[in-house]
Input
Amino acid sequence: MGEYETESNPAIYANLESNHVKTQSELMKPGLAAGWTLDQESVPSNSIDIPTRPVLKSTDSVYTEPTRLDPARPTSGDARTTLFNFTPPFRTKGRHIIDAAQVPLRLVSINWYGASDIDFVPGGLDVRHRDEIAQLIRRLGFNSVRLPYADEMVRANPVIDERVISKNLDLHDGQRLVPARALDVFRAVVESLTAAGLLVIINNHITQATWCCGANPCDAGWSNDWLFGKIFCRVSQILGADLRNEVRGLWGTMHWEDWAKAAERASERLLAWNPEWLMIVEGISSANDLTGVRRRPVQLSVPDRVVYSAHVYQWSGWGQLYPYSRRTYEEFAAAMRENWGYLIEEDVAPVWVGEVGTPDEPTDGDVNYWTHLVEYLEEVGAGWGYWALNAHKATGEGELWLGGLAVGLALGSLGTSRMVVGQ
Output
């Protein structure tokens, strides 16, 4: 394994195919997300069902929504669950994240990447102002945003090309004499998101800024620039730190016990800055495997701070010859239960499924995986994070993901409205 955290460098973490391919329109029926109404006059014929008027109340630019009940989902004795109307700070209690009012919070998240990639900034800042994007995310029904970044972004803090922030040139000084740097942009995005009433989860995604994750041996060494811990330690709506994306040693090897130790050391340093943050610890094997928690949980000096995280795609699970895209629901649910679902079902700890997603033109296998995933998430009441708000890589290359704009506009696709508390 790589050296994930070393005592010799205390500044590191401390600083921090089928014949029929379903179309997007076919996937996005029926149903709307909780809290939405549909203005039929505003939807052209032959279009997908797009909710155009969010039924959300606002007070001083912070949206709230009445607490809703979901009688179909197990609550382990808690009758209330909040989606939007929460009160920081947060802690864990058994399978739940709970707020200061003791109300369980279900994370309905979107990933907004880019600061971890070659442009060093969240994608889309050349299309819309960051405040508009934040409000859009809020209106779409998400309550939280996972913001990935790269170590290189923090260490180098490069000057940002105006081309990639062309709709956010207010990030320069008044005369545009002082160019914006990567940390300036990241901080401004966090401020816009929290001002919109969204919770933010900061994720150390990769070592060198690029699309995650290739065969770069640098990713076997976790030189994690959690300088962000100091920068954001007093922002109340930062929920916490997703310590590292899809942990892996050299060539993908990693033992849970080694990762758990490193996660504990990193968490202790962050909690010294803000003991109210949640520490989000991903599983091994592309974040799909949390079986090791049963024998060796992550234990911290500040209690009730650990949230575990899994990533589930149709291909998830390294070395599997029987991908999720081909499994029955019973087989899929059994795998989820073994890998991470037991933590929820046995009321051990919260699990946030921080990355899920489908391509823009999914195969029947993708649809099979997605249908089963939605059903299982509803069965256990797990929070989740869709990948991603921005559908393309920074280069414009690669697979086109069904972006957050589309999935948020019709969270009812394949039953995803049930992924939102209250449906």
The chain is about 25% helix and 15% strand. Residues 11-419 form a domain with the TIM Barrel fold (CATH 3.20.20.80). Residues 158 and 181 are 5 Å apart (CA to CA). Residues 1-80, 398-423 have pLDDT under 50 and may be disordered.
